[in-house]
Amino acid sequence: MATRVRPSNKRCAVIGGSGFLGRHLVETLVDRGYSVSVFDIRQSYELPGLTFHLGDLCDEQALLPALKNASLVFHCASPAPASDDRELFERVNIQGTRTVIQACLEAGVQKLVLTSSASVVFEGKDIKNGQEDLPYARKPIDYYTETKIEQEKLVLQACDREKDFLTVAIRPHGIFGPRDPQLVPILVDTARRGKMKFIIGDGTNLVDFTFVENVVHGHILAAENLRPNSPICGKPYHITNDEPVRFWDFMSEVLVALGYAAPRFHLPYILVYGLALLLWLLSMILRPVLSFKPTFTPMRVALAGTHHYYSCDRAKQDLGYKPVVSLKEGIQRTVQSYPHLRKGA
Ligand SMILES: NC(=O)C1=CN([C@@H]2O[C@H](COP(=O)(O)OP(=O)(O)OC[C@H]3O[C@@H](n4cnc5c(N)ncnc54)[C@H](OP(=O)(O)O)[C@@H]3O)[C@@H](O)[C@H]2O)C=CC1
Ligand SMILES: CC(C)=CCC[C@@H](C)[C@H]1CC[C@H]2C3=C(CC[C@]12C)[C@@]1(C)CCC(=O)C[C@@H]1CC3
Hints:
The protein is α/β, with parallel strands linked by helices. The protein is 39% helix and 16% strand. The strands form five sheets. The protein has a seven-stranded parallel sheet with strand order 3-2-1-4-5-7-12, with helices on both faces. The protein has a two-stranded parallel ribbon with strand order 6-15. Strand 1 (11-15), helix 1 and strand 2 form a beta-alpha-beta unit. Helix 8 (269-286) packs antiparallel against helix 9 (298-305). Residues 1-5 have low confidence and may be disordered. The structure holds NADPH dihydro-nicotinamide-adenine-dinucleotide phosphate (NDP) and the ligand CC(C)=CCC[C@@H](C)[C@H]1CC[C@H]2C3=C(CC[C@]12C)[C@@]1(C)CCC(=O)C[C@@H]1CC3. Belongs to the 3-beta-HSD family.
C-alpha cells in the first residue's frame, strides 16, 4: 500500500496573502520559521524565500500548486466588504470556499484555518460581550455578512477527524493597523470631505477594534492547537483586543492624532439610519443611469451607532490567547504608519 507523504508541519499556504491581514500573517509566519506559499489574485509585495501563486481561488487547478506539500492552509481572502456585488460575494466566499476545501482534501492538507468575522452574528442591533454561541444573523445586514456566514458553516462542517482534515474559524472584529486599506483611509477621506463632524447617537456605544498583530497571533495559536483531540476542532473563536472602546472615542483619537477635528455634534441614530437606507435604495434604483456610492451606508451607520463587542474568553481558555499589543500602542503604531494621511500632507 502506498504511504501518504506527510507534508512538513512548518509548510503552509496563505490564501489572500497579498491583502492587509494576509500580508501581516505571512510576515509573522516567515519570522517564525514557516515556509510559506502565498495564493492571491494579485501580488502586492515581495519577500525573500516566499513563493507567490497568482490566481482566482474559485479555480481549483490554479490553487493546487500553491497547496502542494502544505500541511496547513490559512484562508483569508474575500472581496472588500464595501462592495455591493452580490454575485461576486457568492462566487468567491461561498463557491470559492467549497473549492478551497476540495483542493485542501486533494492536496492532503491537514489543517484549514478560516478568517471568518464576528459580524456573522450582527444584525444591526446591540451585541454586548457576545459569545460564540450566539446564533448566526437571521437577517444579515449586507451580502458580505450573508456570505461570510455560509463560508464559516462550510469550513466548520468540513472538519473530519476520519479524513485527517481539521478546521477552525477565527472571528476577528474591526481590524486596524499599518497598511489597512479600509478603516483609517475611509475615516480620513470622510473627514477631508467635511463629513466627520457628527456623532451618530449619544456616542457611548462600545465596540471592538482589534490590532492586526493580535489577529495574526490568534490565527497562529489556532493553527498550532489544531490537533485531532483538541476541543477547538470545528469551532469558531472570537479574537479581539479584549478592550471594548467607545466607537466615537476611537475615531476621535485617530482623527486628532492625524491633525483633524474630532466629531462634536450629535445626530439621532434612527434619523441617520433612515437616511442611509433611503440613499442606499436610491443608489440601487438609479444604478442603470447614475452611479454614486453613499459614504454612510446602512451597515456603516449600524456599526457606528450600536454596541458590538465580543468575549474572547473561549480563545483565552482553549488557545491560551491574550492580546500582544494594547489598543493604545496599536493606535500609536497605526497613526505613525500613515504620514501621508496627516492633515496638510
Ligand atoms: N478588515 C476587517 O476589519 C475584517 C476582516 N475580516 C476578514 O479578514 C479577511 C482579510 O481581510 P482584509 O485583509 O481586511 O482584506 P483584503 O481585501 O485586504 O485582503 C483580501 C485579499 O484577498 C484577495 N482576493 C479577493 N478575491 C480573491 C479571489 N477570488 N481569489 C484570490 N484572492 C482574492 C484580495 O485581492 P483584491 O484586493 O484584489 O480583491 C486581497 O488581496 C477577510 O476574509 C475578511 O472577511 C474579518 C473581520 C474584520
Ligand atoms: C462612520 C464612518 C464613515 C466611519 C469610518 C470607519 C468605517 C469605515 C469603519 C468603522 C468600523 C469598521 C468595520 C468594518 C469596515 C470598516 C468600518 C465600517 C468591517 C465591516 C470590515 C469587515 C468585517 O468583517 C467587520 C468590520 C466591522 C467594523
